[in-house]
Design a protein that fits this description.
The structure holds 2 protein chains of 2 kinds. By secondary structure, chain A is of the alpha/beta class. Chain A contains 9 helices and 20 strands. In chain A, the strands form 5 sheets. In chain A, strands 5-6-7-3-8-9 form a 6-stranded mixed β-sheet, sandwiched between helices. In chain A, helix 3 packs across helix 4, helix 3 packs across helix 5 and helix 4 crosses helix 5. By secondary structure, chain B is mostly helical. Chain B is globular, with a radius of gyration of 22 Å. Chain B starts with a helix and ends with a helix. Classes of the chains: A alpha/beta, B mainly alpha. At the A-B interface, strand 1, helix 1, helix 2, strand 4 and helix 3 of A face helix 1, strand 1, helix 3, helix 7 and helix 13 of B.
Chain lengths: 425, 289
């Protein structure tokens, strides 16, 4: 369990932004020729410096190790460098500096079905795809029946895959990849495809892989899948590895590490996308019953959610919405400020000005734990002006809540105080 | 103590070390050997998929050289009246077409390796050279079919009483094939390595190969060229191969072992340059495509 099978040492990856070279041979030759004669490049505009293009560091000095048999999650926002890590690991591209040492075969599920040829039959594609993923022919022969069984496309196995439904296609592709028996399996968002039943099967297979002592790297935006499947996770932020911790902790860090601050989210003018106009968000706040900004509310007390915003011009049909979700990403509720028919009629159109839309959440409502609050401003079926899915993160404290005499965690999102009656008959 | 021993022992053995840039001559040929199953499956894929959903199917392998040969016979033989070293025009042009087609298709198809496989290369690692090598092999199958077709026509002409003089040079056939494949592969992967940066070359290859045919003795024999220009034609490494082929099977042509040796040397140089360039590009081409 303690032998590292992957050691990444100071991995960096630089991408040059913009055009690399001038794209055509003649232009590059002109450039070199001018340089050779000591003249400025004729293709550069006057006053333009000769730059090799801007450099973007997709990864900066990232080091980590993965022990045998571990399921490691990799979390991060888009562009944080997750995919680059996987690309380097699966040797699709080389790092700019640093090195990764790997023990055993790596199979990536970067995208299932790579190399599938639409004109070939399912059977032919199993062999082709298996070989592309690194299997020997005899190995595929040996596992063929198992793959076929797993894929559930037995009766179409001699039909060209271009006639397959997308579900069948994915099942077949995953079946091949799942039977690779690599020492290290890399999975990236693969669970987004296929029907629910099949997803379950995939997750089961991933679990099997891990139980057999093999190592899994799992990249996902789905925090509940990360929490369910991984023990430890690393969080990437703008190419840096910011934390490695048990998954629950890493997920919390990730969710709170963005722009969510304690009890209040204030949008600076430069954070608001230009296309939000005329809507301009100012702040989202969480207030206790005394009107104080808090990041922890009591389950037994009511609390207020307040969205402050300005309109640079009049808007018709505007509605301000809140999205309440658990830290694992399950939506608890969605509510709009004009849900009520009275408000809907009265505030159907709002003149330019400064507004606060607020609502009160009742006491004895949420169970303890960590929640995120998102906000959205839109006109139904017309336009979405602004959206921030994780604007705020807050905790709910259960002291005094029903059932606290038992010090056990209580599953469930809600913690209502229900009217029980106990009658003896 | 025992445990740390084990860890030490374990960590000294790594299967893969992924680093920035590989040694120039670290060609990973062993990996390529391990990928031979994959190469054969690529060959099968190319062969099976090309003519799926066509009416004539693999018959196209025969129609292409036949129509080209007929066209050449009519235009260059009957209208332009180019000499053919005293050979029947049909066989002369067919031998040229069949050999040239093998070289040309190896070159054009391998030259597209990176650009047309960008999607696949972007997702999975396998020795990239497997793709151009599989192209050589699948083209070889096409060549074998066309060559058998050529032999059939040869037999027909002999039955009609034409004097042909196949000779011991035929034993060189595998070497000639190797040279055509090698030259096609070498030039092809050089171009494919460059096309990841310069897309111009794709267009250059398309008509460049056509132009190259005219400085190769495909539609004329070397003997018909004024003596002082023959050297220029023989500078082209494919010239001696095409002439040698013709000489071996039909018994007329201008070739000697020195010229073949020269072409062989060029082939080796081109392959080495090509493979080294290919391996360099392979590591990072996904960032530029």
């Amino acid at each position: 369990m303690s032998d590292p099978v992957i050691i990444a040492e100071n991995i960096s990856k630089a991408y040059r932004l913009g055009q690399i070279g001038s794209g055509t041979l003649t232009n590059d030759l002109k450039g070199w020729w001018a340089k050779a004669r000591g003249k400025p490049n004729p293709l550069l505009k006057i006053g333009q410096e000769e730059l090799d293009g801007e450099i973007l560091w997709a990864l900066r000095e990232v080091s980590f190790s993965v022990e045998q048999g571990m399921v490691l999650g990799i979390i991060g926002r888009n562009g944080a460098g997750k995919s680059t890590v996987l690309k380097i690991l699966s040797r699709v591209t080389a790092p700019t500096s640093g090195q990764i040492k790997v023990k055993g075969r790596i199979a990536s599920l970067l995208e299932v079905g790579t190399g599938f040829h639409p004109e070939l039959t399912g059977r032919e594609n199993i062999y082709l795809n298996g070989a592309i993923l690194g299997m020997k022919r005899v190995e595929i022969d040996r596992k063929f029946d198992e793959i076929l069984d797993f894929s559930e496309v037995e009766q179409f196995i001699d039909t060209p895959v271009k006639r397959y439904s997308s579900g069948m296609y994915v099942r077949l592709a995953f079946a091949v990849a799942a039977h690779l028996e690599p020492e290290i399996l890399v999975v990236d968002e693969v669970l987004a495809v296929g029907d629910v039943e099949f997803q379950k099967k995939c997750l089961g297979k991933m679990g099997d892989v891990a139980r057999e002592g093999r190592t899994v790297l799992f990249v996902s935006h789905n925090m509940s899948a990360i929490l369910r499947l991984t023990q430890e996770s690393i969080v990437l932020e703008k190419g840096h590895l910011v934390i490695r911790a048990p998954s629950a902790e890493a997920v919390d860090y990730y969710l709170s590490g963005g722009n969510a601050k304690a009890g209040e989210r204030i949008w600076d003018a430069d954070e608001v996308p230009a296309d939000a106009a005329p809507f301009r968000p100012i702040a989202l706040r969480l207030l206790d019953k005394a009107g104080k900004i808090v990041d922890t509310v009591r389950s037994t007390e009511a609390f207020k959610i307040e969205m402050e915003y300005a309109l640079a011009g009049p808007l018709t049909g505007l509605r301000i919405g809140i999205y309440l979700s658990t830290a694992r990403g399950e939506v608890v509720l969605t509510s709009f400020d004009t849900d009520d028919q009275k408000h809907f009629e009265k505030h159907g159109s709002r003149p330019a000005g400064h507004y606060i839309s607020g609502c009160v959440l009742p006491p004895d409502f949420l169970n303890g734990g960590c929640y995120t609050l998102g906000v959205n401003a839109s006109s139904y079926r017309v336009r979405r002006y602004f959206m921030d899915e994780q604007a705020l993160i807050f905790n709910v404290d259960t002291s005094g809540a029903p059932g606290m005499q038992w010090a056990e965690p209580r599953p469930g999102v809600l913690r209502p105080r229900l009217e029980w009656k106990i009658e003896s008959k | 103590m025992a445990k740390s021993d084990r860890v030490q022992k374990g960590s000294s053995k790594w299967d893969i070390v992924i680093g920035p840039q590989r040694n120039l001559f670290d060609l990973r040929l062993r990996e390529l050997w391990h990928a031979r199953d994959l190469i054969m499956l690529f060959v099968r894929r190319d062969f099976v998929s090309v003519y799926k959903q066509t009416i004539l199917g693999p018959l196209w392998y025969l129609i292409q050289p036949l129509l080209t040969t007929i066209t050449f016979t009519v235009i260059f033989g009957n209208i332009a009246k180019l000499p053919t070293d005293g050979l029947p025009q049909f066989l002369f042009y067919m031998s040229g077409t069949v050999t040239w087609t093998y070289f040309a298709s190896c070159l054009t198809k391998t030259s597209e390796t990176f650009v047309s496989n960008a999607n696949l290369f972007g997702k999975v690692y396998f020795p990239r050279l497997a793709v151009p090598i599989s192209i050589l092999i699948s083209n070889l199958i096409a060549f074998a079919i066309q060559f058998a077709f050529f032999l059939a026509f040869m037999g027909y002409f002999v039955l009609q009483g034409t004097q042909l003089h196949p000779n011991w040079w035929m034993l060189l056939t595998p070497v000639l094939l190797l040279m055509m494949a090698g030259l096609g592969l070498g030039f092809g992967i050089i171009v494919s390595s460059l096309t990841t940066k310069y897309r111009d070359l794709r267009f250059l290859v398309q008509f460049g190969v056509q132009l190259l045919m005219y400085v190769t003795p495909v539609i004329y024999p070397i003997s018909s060229i004024p003596h002082q220009f023959q050297v220029l034609i023989q500078f082209n490494p494919m010239s001696s191969v095409v002439e040698a082929f013709r000489y071996a099977y039909l018994g007329a042509g201008t070739v000697n072992l020195v010229q073949l040796g020269y072409s062989f040397g060029i082939m080796l140089v081109v392959i080495i340059i090509g493979v080294v360039m290919f391996n360099r590009v392979e590591a990072t081409f996904m960032d530029t495509v």
